[in-house]
UniProtKB/TrEMBL annotation:
Pfam families: Cyclin_C, Cyclin_N. Residues 236-353 form the Cyclin C-terminal domain. SUPFAM superfamilies: Cyclin-like (SSF47954). This is Cyclin N-terminal domain-containing protein. It comes from Tetradesmus obliquus (Green alga).
Amino acid sequence: MYPQTGAFSQPPASKWEQEAGTCPSSSSCVASESCVCLPGSQCSEGCLQQQDAAGIYSTEAFSLEESSCAYQECGSTSGQTQWRGDFPEQTGRLELLQMIRCQMDVEQEVHPPRQFLDPHRQAAAAGSSDFLTPGMRMIVASWMVEVAEEFRLQQETLHLATGLLDRFLSSTQDVPRCVLQLLAVACMMLAAKDLEVVQPTVEQFCAVTANHFKRQDLLRMERIVLDVLEFRLSSPSSYTFLHLLAQACSHCVTPSVLSLAMYVCELAVLEYDMHQYPHSTRAGAALLLSQLSLGAAAHLPNVASVVAALGIPVDELAGCMESLLSLQKAAFQHTLAAAAAAAGCGAAAQSCEVGDLLAPLRTKYGHACWCDVSGVPPIAALPPAYVWAAY
């Protein structure tokens, strides 16, 4: 989404600046095109990036570079975590909390109702055979994870696409199951247009459906989604809140902790019942749960104090953590069953079929670039709710 030269690097100089000798690139303090060093750090090419004093490019500092464990694309040779750009020193925790609260206000406006598939269930009760179920939604959401991996889309794009899907389903009642995949592809295409620098073409999106839908079908569905959502695409997701919380707790959140939190949040994306919790609650609960799962209890008070400052009720936070822990345990059991099936156990192969929908996530987060967090054993139980109230 952002250029690889760092969030605070100088903009490219014009031709006349280069000829006049005033080009900022001629200075030894500006990073080269391939430099991904942190602002204020010495890079491998001997240059030192300088942060823009006026804060012109500060809007790009709100995202993290995908490198190393949680942020590096698989296959990269970099062995060190590269952050997209830390917040300037004058931007403190209070400013970050204000940003999160603003996103929470937006979330209240666009978040789908808790049981948005109930009208479809009522249609089923009335005798209709063409209705949607939570299981169907989970199937298409799991397929969207595979599509995002196929096109190497950003995490934010995947979360936005599933959010558009849920918002559309909550706004309409007569969605035939035969167009659910077409709807999912249209949401993926809209999210990619909104967030990706280079988007897959319409033909490529049609190809992932085995050309079951034509180009005009996809473009027509795209217009329908835009009309239903009134062209309001941007909405905060668990990814949005998780990264803002990670910035607020950057001194105590490791790449492995953040990778596990992102894994748990994506498990929640597949589960329909998790819509009873807002994305902000899910992100805070996932971050606390990952701290516990990886034995980072020493930093738990710092993270818990930041989450508590958002005004999330303790009971709601504890309930969300319990639900996320149940999802993690179920996914871990399916991981063990898949490993047993690969070893040739026939009995395990049958139980592994239940977790086929989780296979894309297991594979994705089983890579070293995500610190292999899908294989992290979940904790046995959570501390009592009053522990969080103490913070």
